[in-house]
Automatic annotation (TrEMBL):
Coiled-coil ranges from the UniProt annotation: none
Protein name: Alpha 1,4-glycosyltransferase domain-containing protein
Pfam families: Gb3_synth, Gly_transf_sug
InterPro entries (UniProt xref): A1-4-GlycosylTfrase_dom, GlycoTrfase_DXD_sugar-bd_CS, Nucleotide-diphossugar_trans, Put_A1-4-GlycosylTfrase_plant
Keyword Iron: no
UniProt KW keywords: Membrane, Transmembrane, Transmembrane helix
Chain segments annotated as transmembrane: 20-39
Alphabetical list of Gene3D superfamilies matching this protein: 3.90.550.20
Domain Alpha 1,4-glycosyltransferase: 314-437
Length: 443
């Protein structure tokens, strides 16, 4: 019994001692907490700089693996501390951005003026790069043309600016085309000729032109730039659709139809004289300005019934040329021969005839087309009889007195041989520049 009493007394003593320690511990904790709170009242918060410097607002984001990043930019007039993080994750501003940029939450106008980077903007930027490259190409084409004309004009040459187009291979540029060039320079020794052709703007092409260059004649070949030539015209949209496969080219050779449009673009941009490569020039075009030639006339009314676009002389930016280009784009039909060429210019001129603002002249068939395509063979044949000989003499005299050029109608006359005593042979002897056996070979 006594032992039990002693044990209980010892237990109470220890419990009392522990109780005192427990209250002491609680008191110490309260004093520490009070000291901490008191110190924080007088403590100034100093933000520590970030270990890695933040990216500036104008920095374009790089591709980040796995997760994409959106970048947030501010107007250049707003100055922010370097420690600000200009990133937005999943469309929600980070806590640090909320802490240091309270203005963004108060001023809604400023928020609206900010710009979020997204993929569409990158695509737009890339398109801008393509436009710049295209403009560089445009400037290169225009620069080549103007450099050629202006450089040549320094020695009083280039009084006449000629254009030809060549849509075939360089190997097919043959005797007929070369003699057409000879006749041009025979009548215009101070003229300049640009052959607009991708195939001729080559080493082989320049080798073909070398004899003319060695003789001091002004000729070169430049590949076309359709984007530049058709810019700000109806043909621009048409050509873009063609390149995207949204235009039916039809059964007629597409190159031929592009040549019909190309010649219009060249004259519209630069002005000058366009000639097909089967045109033999007989005399100077001096005095001709803004003219197009009739191919046929109505025998009863004596008015023209059809025009042709194998020879055209126009000022730069002439409104009739713009109408021609517009008609091509609006009425293109690749299944009808001549629809986008001779018939096109005939339709437009017939429609605008008598309207003010157009200053041009339609020359009679004798100017450029003294013989119709159906009778072109008569110029290649030599005399077979006295009556035929008289006709040849009379016809040659008429052509020399009234015609500026002769259209050979390549499609019909390509297989004809130049016979002795023929009108073509007489023209060749009087129109040659080199006048050697190869120059006077059969066309």
């Amino acid at each position: 019994m006594e032992d039990n009493f002693n044990f209980l007394s010892q237990l109470l003593f220890n419990w009392g001692k522990s109780k005192i320690s427990f209250y002491a511990l609680i008191s110490i904790l309260l004093l520490c907490l009070l000291a901490y709170n008191s110190a924080s009242i007088f403590c100034t918060h100093l933000p520590f700089p970030a270990r890695n410097p933040p990216e500036p607002a104008s920095f374009l984001p790089e591709n980040v693996t796995k997760k994409s990043r959106k970048f947030f930019s501010l107007p250049s007039s707003t100055k922010m501390p370097d420690s600000v993080l200009y990133s937005v994750k999943d469309g929600i501003l980070t806590t640090k951005l909320k802490t240091h940029l309270p203005l963004l939450h108060k001023n809604q106008n400023l928020v609206k003026r900010t710009t979020l980077y997204h993929p569409k903007r990158r695509k737009r930027h890339r398109r801008g790069v393509k436009i710049n490259l295209s403009e560089a190409k445009v400037n290169q084409f225009e620069g080549k043309v103007m450099e050629f004309f202006n450089a040549s004009s320094s020695d009083s040459s280039c009084k006449f600016r000629f254009f030809m187009t060549w849509i075939s291979s360089v190997e097919s540029f043959g005797n007929r085309e070369l003699f057409a060039m000879e006749s041009l320079f025979k009548s215009h020794p101070n003229g300049c000729l640009i052959i607009v052709s991708n195939s001729m703007e080559s080493t082989n092409g320049m080798e073909i032109l070398k004899p003319f260059l060695d003789k001091g004649l002004k000729v070169t070949a430049i590949g076309p730039d359709f984007d530049y030539l058709f810019k700000n015209t109806s043909a621009q949209a048409w050509y873009n659709r063609l390149m995207h496969g949204n235009v039916n080219p039809g059964e007629v050779n597409l190159g031929q139809n592009l040549s019909n449009l190309l010649r219009l673009g060249l004259l519209y941009r630069f002005g000058g004289i366009y000639l097909d490569t089967d045109i033999l020039v007989l005399k100077s075009f001096r005095g001709l300005r803004n003219v197009i030639g009739a191919q046929t006339i109505d025998l009863d009314t004596r008015n023209w019934s059809r025009l042709n676009n194998a020879v055209m002389i126009f000022d730069e930016g002439h409104p009739l040329l713009y109408k021609f280009i517009e008609e091509f784009a609006l009425t293109f039909d690749g299944n009808k021969w001549g629809h986008n060429g001779p018939y096109l210019v005939s339709r437009v001129v017939n429609r605008i005839s008598g309207r003010p603002g157009y200053n041009f002249t339609v020359l009679p068939p004798m100017a450029f087309y003294p013989v119709d395509w159906s009778r072109i063979g008569s110029l290649f044949y030599g005399p077979k009889s006295l009556s035929q000989s008289k006709w040849l003499v009379a016809k040659l005299r008429q052509i020399r007195s009234k015609s500026y050029a002769v259209h050979l109608w390549n499609k019909q006359s390509r297989g004809f041989k130049v016979e002795k005593g023929s009108i073509i042979q007489h023209i060749m002897f009087s129109s040659c520049v080199f006048c050697n056996s190869s120059s006077l070979a059969a066309l």
